[in-house]
Specification:
Layout: H1 2-19, E1 23-25, E2 34-38, H2 40-50, E3 55-58, E4 62-66, E5 70-72, E6 76-79, E7 94-98, E8 111-113, E9 118-125, E10 139-143, E11 149-164, E12 173-188, E13 196-202, H3 205-208, H4 219-230, E14 232-236, E15 242-245, E16 248-250, E17 254-258, E18 274-277, E19 280-282, E20 286-290, E21 299-302, E22 305-306, E23 310-312, E24 320-323, E25 326-327, E26 339-341, E27 346-350, E28 353-355, E29 371-373, E30 377-381, E31 384-386, E32 396-398, E33 404-408, E34 411-413, E35 419-421, E36 426-430, E37 433-434
Amino acid sequence: MKKIKWIILLLLTPCILYATTSDYNVLDFGAVGDGKIDNTEAFQKALNKAAEKGGIVHVPSGKFRFNGVLIIPPAVVLQGSNVGPVSVFYDKNTVLMAYAGRGNENSAPFITMESASTVKGLGIAYPEQVPENIAPYPYCIHIAGNRCNVMEITIANAYNGIDCGSVYQEAHNLRDINMCALRRGIYVDRTTDVGRIENVHIHSVSWWDINYPERMGSQIELINKFTQEHLEGFIIGRCDWEYMVNCFVIWAKVGFRFIETKGDPRGNDPQSNILITQSGSDVGPLAVLVEKTQYHCGIAFSNCQFMDGILIEEANRGPVKLVNCGFWGWAETLGGTHIMNKGKGTVYLTACNFNAKNWVECHWKPEIPFIKMTNGTLQMMNCRFQDNGNTPDAHIVLGEDVRAAVVMGNSVEGGNLRVDNQSKGEVQIFGNVGE
C-alpha cells in the first residue's frame, strides 16, 4: 500500500510544481504574434498575473503589435527569445512593435518599469517611423522604480531610448543593449545610489538591419544626417557613483552630455559623479559636452577614444579626468580643437594620445591648438602629440585666466612641444621631449 502511495505522489509532483509555477506565457493570455492584432491587453494581463507573487512572463518568437503601452509590475520579468543584443529582424526572434505615442514625446513611454522589474531578450521596433519623415515618440523604456534591469535588448529605431532620469530611482542595471536612437539615447538623472551601464551600443545600424538582407540603401544617409543634427547619445545628470563600461555612440550631435539637475530637493550635488571606461564617441561634431559635474569628484574617462572634441563649459567647477584616452579627427563644434576648457575646474590628462589624423581633410590651420584652456587648472603628464606634418603654432594654449598648470613628461612626434602661455597664474612646463 505504501508503494502505491509513493507512486501516486511521484505522478502528481509535476502537476503540483506546475500549479505553483512563477512562469507564464503570453500566448496563454491571448497574445498573437502575427504583427496585426493588438497585444496590449493580453500582455498586461500576463504581467499582472505574474505580479501576484512575482514571476517571469515569457514571449516566444513572433511579431507582437501594440497600440497601447505596458507597465511591468514590481518583481516581474518580461523575457523574450533573444540571447544577447542581436539585430532586430521582423521574421525572427521576439519583436515588439510599438505604435503608440507617434508625434508626442510627452505621452506615456512604451514600457514603464516599476521597482525590481526586468525586461530581457527583446527586440523593439517602431514600424511607423520612416527615415523620410522622422517623428517624435516618447521614451521607449522608462525606469520608474529602484533596481530595475534592462538586459539583452535591441531597439531598432527609437526616437528616445531609455529613461533613467525623469523620476528618482537607484541601482539601475542597463546591460547588453544595441539601439538606434534618433534624439536621446540613454538618459541618467535623479539616481540616488550606484547605477551601472554596460555594453551599450548606440548605432544606427540597429535600424539598417531591420529589413536585412536588403538593408536600407540611401535611407542610411538620411538617418545618419538626422542623428548628427539631433542625437544626444548619453545624457548624464545627478548620479552617485555611477559606473559605465564598454559603451559607444556614433553619428551623434553630442556623444556624452553632462548636465545639472534643476530643482533637486535631495542633496547639494545635483550633477554627475561617474566613472567611464573602455568607451567612446565616433564621427560627430562633439564627443563630450560638460555643462556641470559634482565639485568634489566630477567625472573620469579611462581607456576611451574620441573621434571629435571635448567642450567643458563655464559653469563647471568639478574635475574632468582623462587617463589613457585617444583623440583624433576634427571637432567641428570646437573649430578643430580636441579639448576646450572654459570652466573653473581642473582638467587632468594622463597618458593620452592626440593625433592630427583628419586635420588635413578638414581645412586645418596652424592657429588651431590641440588643447585650449581659457580658465581653470591643467594637470598634464606623459601624453603624446602626433602632428602628422601639421605642426600647430601651439599644441597647448593657456589663457590669462588659467589659475595654474603643470605640463610635464610629454612628447611630440616630429618636433618640440609648443605652449602658448598667457596665464597669470603659476605654470610649470618641464621634462617634455621631441621625437
